[in-house]
Design brief:
Beta-Lactamase; five-stranded antiparallel β-sheet; 49% helix; alpha+beta; 14 helices; Heat Shock Protein 90; 527 residues; elongated; single chain
Length: 527
């Protein structure tokens, strides 16, 4: 058996199962069918006996002790019935008034099973031997004016029932053989199909492939988790256990949400939409993950996630993104400086020293006022520089950008992660400026509110720009969604990912055509 090919093993095994199951099924089917035939026979006998017992001919004949009319009625019924061979009508003493054999008229009923119908007036069936042989017999009382005057017995000969049984058993046996032959042919085709579905591989080859796959999965640095339709873990490799800091390695079969409450694999299981390069925090580990559904045709049968510990990469990406915002701010500052420098050069060339001096002093007072407004409230120089750059960026677009008077940001006492802060603040301000540009108004304004008093850090950006249509509010945080020409739609997606990674919340209130308010709240301990 060990050296036997898989196809032959499957064929023999399926044939054995088919023969055994078909034999068992045939046995119970035959028992059921025979029982059903007996029930039908009894039901027919009861129906015939009831009709005869209700006949006025039978009732009057028994009451008047007249057998002639009864016998004619019985003979007429027997001539028209197929499954009823015996009809006997007797009085309360068991004397026959009607019988298939007229010579038996006047004789006493034979069988001994008639006492219940005489003594109790009961309706019942029995098996007994009478003058015509062994039969299934049914007894029904006959009444005349609410008084029992006799009974009717209808019967089906047992020999006929035996013939019917044998016919049923032969038919079932015949069809059983046909079923086994068809099953054998099916077994051969199934074994061929299974062999093909396994790509012609024998069991030992499948085992070898499994061992190779297991070794490969264990050697990967990427973590791998797979779940089934019920969100139960079906696969997890050592890298995943290490990255996610799972203390108990016996996690196969457990619900993924019970072990990792922040997992998004169940979302892929529900939507069937793959997600790539998504940042996420699970069990304190910052990971970059790809999530995809496992499909059987069009049916989702599970989901798979591959991921790596990307804490250092994310930090670098955040720093690069933050530097980009700072560079943009410096560009705006440089542009503003060059404009003012050109004015000064022009005033010098026309030789108006008084106006030149006045303009320079005005610029100094304006810059001092702006710096005081920003740096009195903002201790972090990087964030302050970002705000100064955005002030000049807004000024280029003829938009008034202001820092609210009650803003305060003292970052030194809890170690503010300024890269993450710059990502959030820079993108929100830039989106507000773009919203005002889309509305194309002359009195565009953006108000920034920053506050770190208490347990949370709050970032709020308010604009009077184009606003967001109600049905699009839920879409603006999706990567790729944008209302700006030439944009890739990743700004708010990055903001959302950063806020979620810091266990914060982002809320948006918007009235289409009137403006929007974005509010970000982040716990200090997560910053």
């Amino acid at each position: 058996m060990r050296n036997m090919k898989l196809q032959l093993k499957l064929t023999i095994g399926i044939i054995i199962v088919i023969i055994f199951s078909t034999g068992i099924s045939s046995y119970f089917v035959s028992r059921f069918e025979l029982s059903r035939v007996e029930q039908i026979t009894e039901s027919n006998l009861f129906n015939v006996a009831g009709i005869i017992a209700d006949s006025t001919v039978i009732q009057n004949g028994l009451y008047n002790n007249s057998s002639e009319d009864i016998q004619k009625f019985v003979e007429a019924q027997l001539a028209n019935l197929i499954d009823v061979e015996i009809i006997t009508v007797a009085d309360m003493n068991g004397v026959r008034f009607g019988h298939p054999n007229p010579k038996r008229i006047g004789e006493t009923f034979v069988g001994g099973d008639e006492r219940r119908v005489i003594d109790e007036g009961a309706r019942y069936a029995s098996i007994a031997t009478g003058t015509l042989g062994r039969s299934i017999r049914v007894f029904v009382p006959v009444y005349f004016e609410n008084q029992q005057v006799g009974f009717v017995m209808t019967a089906h000969l047992f020999d006929d029932l035996v013939i019917t049984r044998k016919s049923i058993e032969k038919s079932i046996f015949f069809f059983t053989i046909i079923g086994i032959i068809i099953g054998i042919i099916g077994a051969v085709f199934i074994s061929i199909f299974i062999k093909k579905s396994l790509m012609g591989l024998e069991p030992y080859e499948i085992v070898q492939l499994y061992r190779e796959k297991d070794a490969m999965i264990k050697s990967l640095h990427e973590g791998i988790i797979a779940i089934d339709q019920s969100s139960n873990i079906t696969l997890i490799n050592d890298s995943a256990i290490k990255i996610l800091k799972v203390s108990n390695h016996d996690v196969i079969g457990k619900n993924v949400t019970a072990l990792f409450p922040t997992t998004k694999l169940t979302r892929v299981l529900e939507t069937g939409v793959a997600e790539y390069d998504k940042g996420q925090t699970i069990n304190g580990a910052h990971i970059m993950t790809n999530r995809m559904p496992i499909l059987d045709g069009d049916k989702i049968i599970g989901a798979l996630a591959t991921f790596r510990d990307r804490t250092e990469v994310i930090a670098m990406a955040e720093e690069i993104t933050g530097v980009k915002q700072i560079i943009e701010a410096l560009r705006a500052n440089t542009h503003e400086f060059m404009n003012k420098l050109h004015v000064i050069i022009g005033l010098i060339e026309i030789g108006d020293d008084t106006l030149t001096k006045s303009y320079i002093l005005d610029l100094k007072r304006s810059q001092d006022s702006i710096r005081e407004m920003v740096f009195e409230k903002i201790d972090n120089p990087m964030i302050g520089a970002l705000l100064l750059g955005k002030l000049n960026r807004a000024k280029e677009e003829y938009i008034e950008l202001s820092l609210s008077e009650d803003s305060v940001l003292k970052a030194l006492d809890y170690g503010l992660n300024y890269q993450a802060f710059i990502i959030i603040l820079g993108n929100l301000i830039e989106n507000a400026i773009e919203a005002i540009k889309r509305k194309n108004i002359d009195n565009g304004s953006v108000e920034v509110y920053l506050n770190d008093v208490g347990t949370d850090v709050t970032i709020q950006v308010i604009d009077n720009g184009a606003g967001i249509e109600g049905e699009n509010i839920s879409k603006i945080f999706n990567r790729g969604y944008t209302t700006k020409d030439g944009s890739h739609g990743i700004g708010l997606d990055i903001v959302t990912a950063t806020v979620k990674r810091l266990d914060g919340q982002i809320e948006v209130e918007s009235v289409f055509g009137e403006g929007s308010t974005f509010t970000v709240t982040i716990p200090k301990e997560e910053i």
